[in-house]
Specification:
Length: 237
Amino acid sequence: MVYSSYAIRVPKDIVNSDYHLILNNLDDNQKGKVNRLRFKEDQYLSLVGQCLIRTILCKYIGLPNKDLRFSYNYYGKPFINNIDGKSLEFNLSHSGEWVVLAISDQPIGIDIERINLDIDVTLYFNHFFSNKEQCLFSNLREQDISNYFFEFWTLKESFLKAEGTGLAIPFTSFTILKENELIKVLDIEDKELEYSFKQYYIDNDYKLAVCGREINMEKEITVVDYQTLFKEFKSLL
C-alpha cells in the first residue's frame, strides 16, 4: 500500500530563471493555469505545487518529467494510470505560504487552510455544515469557534477531494465526527463511510487534514525545503 504526504513553505521570491525553468517543463494546461493568475504569490503557489507533484511522482514511478502522463476522472481530478496495473492517486492543496501534497494507490484527499480570524465564520454554518456539526459549534466558547471552523472545514474538504467528485456532494449531506484522534465521516443516513483521517500540525496559523480509504497514514508529514526540491526537479528533466 502506497501513502505519503509532503508540505513545503513557498519562498516569498523565486529567481526568474528558476521560475521559467519550472514553467517551461509543465504541460500546456498547467502553464495556462499559472499564467492566468494575476498575483505573484498565487503564481508561486501554483508553480511550486506543480514542481512538488512532478518531482515526487517521477521518483515514485521512475520516469523523467517529460514522460509523465496524467489522466483525469469525470470531475477533472488528475491521477497517474497503469503503474504496475494500478493507478496512483494524488491531491494538492495550498493556502497562505504552504503547499501540501498527498499520494496513494487508494482514493486520497488533502486540504490546508490558513486560520482567518477576520471572517465571521458563523455566516457559513448553515451552508456548509450538517445539523450535527452545527450542534457542536453551538456548544463552543466564542473564542474557539474560528479554530474549530477551519479544523472541520479541512476535514470536510479532504473527504470531498478523496471522493473526487468536485462539488457534486453537498457539504451539508455528510457529517464529520471527531473524538480526540478518532475521526469518522457519516453519510446523510448516518452510515459510517470507509475513510480514515489524519491531521498534521506544521504551523500554528494553519489547519491541515488528509482523508484516505484503507490507508495507514504516517505519523508525520514530510516537510520539504524549496531549494532541495528545485535541485531534485532539475535532475529529473
